Amino acid sequence: MKKEVRDPQGLAVEKSLKTLGYDTVKRVRVGKYMEVFFEAGSREEASAKVEEMSRRLLSNPVIEDFSYNLLEPEGEK
Quick one: average pLDDT of 25-31? Predict the structure, then answer.
């Protein structure tokens, strides 16, 4: 979620953590995590596909930023 967007879920988690005695917690942001498995001919192609998928469907650019990591499935190198 973009920094300037309010995060009511994050604020609720932060308050609860402090209530439980975790006084050193300064801020909590709650977001979403996805794993997308697909085939690509190269890392460059994979990166381009992820960028396109993220911009077209997986994120809401008005309120969300996105980042990604490209990983090779275990046992497939």
Answer: 91
Q: How far is CA 9 from CA 27, 29, 44, 49, 56, in A?
A: 12, 8, 35, 30, 25
CB within 8 A of 73, min separation 6: which ones?
Answer: 37
pTM of the complete model:
0.67
- Identify the three-state secondary structure at position 10: helix
DSSP string computed for 42-68: SHHHHHHHHHHHIIIII--TTT-----
37-48 pLDDT tens trace: 999 999 999 999
